[in-house]
Structure formats: structure tokens, C-alpha cells
């Protein structure tokens, strides 16, 4: 059986099992969505938002791209934020990066001429890496540098989101959280929760060192 066929067979099994477990499940899905969380994560296949948080369809409004980046000038990520905040009225925006991120690693390497779209997309991340060069070189191994940049990248996206008029003008404004997922044990670490006042300091500091 080819791979797409396998996916379709699995889908039939999932639909049957879901309906058997919860007979009202699909009827509720048809009625509409009311997610409370916008998830901005990496496209990496190893970090599926719903799976790692045990969420169901309807729980998360999801945007994923290489290295979980948010650009206010990019209609793709900005439209997702706009819809999530203004129409769905989500209470939380979670940026979830991950250790061992290939997009983050690429930002520390010379651009690959075969990947012009990726290069353009991660240009702000490359710029962030340059401004953080000193701090990153304090880490001995490439792996540590990639992982530290992955954390600082999450904080930078959080800063951008918190500064976005879409978030600032919302009433109530959604809380913006920064998380990072570890591939080696499946656990998420909270870098900034959006709840504590000192979080703002962490983000501001990261933003200043990135500015
Ligand atoms: Co990644």
C-alpha cells in the first residue's frame, strides 16, 4: 500500500473510532469552531501541536511555518493572528519552538543557494542570530548554540506578537506565551507564560539584545 493510501485507510479508522467513542463529535464540529488558543509552531513533522498537547480537533487554531516565525508584514502569519484574535477571540497565543530546529540551525549557516524562499523567510532570524553572536559563542557546541537561538527566537516572536496592533488593540488582549519543546523527552518548557509581570522583563531583555 502506498503512503497516501495508508493515510486514507487510517483516516477511515480514525473517523469510525472517534464516532464510536463520542457519537456527537462530528455533529459538534459541523456547528463551528471555538478554539481558545492560537498555536504558532514549527512545520517540523516531529512537533505536531495537537499530539504533544493531547488536543482534539476544535481545540487549537494552528499556524505552522519553518522556525515558528511571526512577521507583522507577512499576510500569512498576520491573517491567522487577525482572524484568531478578532473573530475567534482566542484568549491565548502560544509560540512553541523546539530544540534541534533545522530552520534555526540554517540561520547560523551560510545561505543555501538552492533554497531561496527559505533564505528570505528566515532572514530576520539570521539577523537575530548576528545580533546575538556574542551570547551564542559563549556556548561550546553547535547544538547548544542552535538550542539557545531557538529559545531566543521564541522570545523574539513573543515580543513581536505582543507589540502587534492586533494584540494591543484587542479587548481583552490575548496573553502571549513562549514555549519550547524538547525532542528528547517530549516535554515543553515555558519560557514566558504571559501571566507573570517578570515575563515582560525577560522578553524586553531578549528584545533589547536582539535590537
Ligand atoms: Co523547527
UniProtKB/TrEMBL annotation:
One of its GO terms (molecular function) is zinc ion binding. It comes from the Bacteria. InterPro entries: Carbonic_anhydrase, Carbonic_anhydrase_CS, Carbonic_anhydrase_sf. Binds 1 zinc ion per subunit. The keyword Phosphoprotein does not apply. Coiled coil: none annotated. Signal peptide: none annotated. Keywords: Lyase, Metal-binding, Zinc. Its EC number is 4.2.1.1. Pfam families: Pro_CA. Its cofactor is Zn(2+). Zn(2+) binds at residues 42, 44, 98, 101. It catalyses: hydrogencarbonate + H(+) = CO2 + H2O. GO terms for biological process: carbon utilization; cellular response to carbon dioxide; cellular response to oxidative stress. Reversible hydration of carbon dioxide. Belongs to the beta-class carbonic anhydrase family. This is Carbonic anhydrase. It comes from Paraburkholderia fynbosensis.
Amino acid at each position: 500500500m502506498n503512503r497516501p493510501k495508508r493515510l486514507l485507510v487510517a483516516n477511515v479508522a480514525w473517523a469510525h473510532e472517534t464516532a464510536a467513542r463520542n457519537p456527537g463529535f462530528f455533529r459538534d464540529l459541523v456547528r463551528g469552531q471555538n478554539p481558545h488558543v492560537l498555536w504558532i509552531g514549527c512545520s517540523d513533522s516531529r512537533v505536531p501541536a495537537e499530539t504533544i498537547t493531547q488536543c482534539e480537533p476544535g481545540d487549537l487554531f494552528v499556524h505552522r511555518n519553518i522556525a515558528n516565525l511571526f512577521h507583522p508584514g507577512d499576510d500569512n502569519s498576520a491573517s491567522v493572528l487577525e482572524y484568531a484574535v478578532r473573530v475567534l477571540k482566542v484568549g491565548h497565543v502560544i509560540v512553541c519552538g523546539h530544540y534541534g530546529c533545522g530552520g534555526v540551525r540554517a540561520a547560523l549557516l551560510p545561505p543555501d543557494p538552492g533554497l531561496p524562499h527559505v533564505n528570505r523567510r528566515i532572514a530576520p532570524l539570521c539577523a537575530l542570530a548576528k545580533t546575538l553572536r556574542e551570547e551564542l559563542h559563549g556556548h561550546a557546541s553547535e547544538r547548544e548554540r542552535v538550542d539557545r537561538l531557538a529559545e531566543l527566537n521564541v522570545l523574539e516572536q513573543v515580543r513581536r506578537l505582543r507589540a502587534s496592533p492586533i494584540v494591543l488593540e484587542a479587548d481583552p488582549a490575548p496573553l502571549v506565551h513562549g514555549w519550547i519543546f524538547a525532542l528528547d523527552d517530549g516535554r515543553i518548557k515555558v519560557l514566558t507564560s504571559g501571566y507573570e509581570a517578570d515575563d515582560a522583563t525577560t522578553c524586553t531583555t531578549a528584545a533589547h539584545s536582539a535590537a
